[in-house]
Every structure is written in C-alpha cells, then in structure tokens.
C-alpha cells in the first residue's frame, strides 16, 4: 500500500518562494473567483474559459521567471511544478521552438517536398521501421 501524503510530511518551499508568493496568491484568488462566478446563460464549455486563462497566465508567469528573467532557482522551479503551481506540459510546449520562418507559398511547397523526399529516401535505404530483428 502506498504511503499517504499529508501536509505534515510535505517539504517546505525552497528559498525565493516568499518573493513570488504574493503573485501566486493573487492568481489563486482570481481562480476561486472564476470557479465561483455565476454561469447562468453561458454554454458549458464557456464556463471554463476564465479558469483556463488564469491557469495559463500563472504558468506563463513561472515560465518567464525561470527561463526569460532567470529570477528563480532550479530548485524553486521544480518545486513549483511538483506542487502544481504551473502546468509542466504547457511550459514544455513553450520551450519548443520549432516554428518555421515565414515563407512564400512556393518556398514552403519546395521545403515540404524536400522533407518528403528525404524521408522517403531514408526509408528506402532501410530507415526506421524497415528492419526485422
């Protein structure tokens, strides 16, 4: 049977949490207000939009503190992710920078053709998925 986690055996926050605690409390209060807001006359999915927006803002705040401003430590960042102050999958998406530069339609078509042909050539040479073990 797994051990039961309680607040008594939770680790205290690392150094630097006091600096951002006020902002995180503001986000928490906004979240409570959004969850308790009246939803009469709204569609079912529209009720959740403010909740997603606040969650997104809180995650973006922590992302910018760690990656752009470098204002918090790695230990504090990991602690915040572990304690669900930010969405780790959303931050992972922001870390990826795979967007293509803007291209004309002709250049984009040529690029896609190049990618298609290079993948077709690698599979013809025995690329991934063609080997039998």
From TrEMBL:
Localisation: Nucleus
Primary location class: nucleus
GO CC, alphabetical: spliceosomal complex
UniProt-listed Pfam families: BUD31
Gene Ontology biological process terms from the UniProt entry: mRNA splicing, via spliceosome
Swiss-Prot/TrEMBL keywords: Nucleus
Family per record: Belongs to the BUD31 (G10) family.
Name of the protein this chain belongs to: Pre-mRNA-splicing factor cwf14
Lineage, highest ranks first: Eukaryota, Fungi, Dikarya, Ascomycota, Pezizomycotina
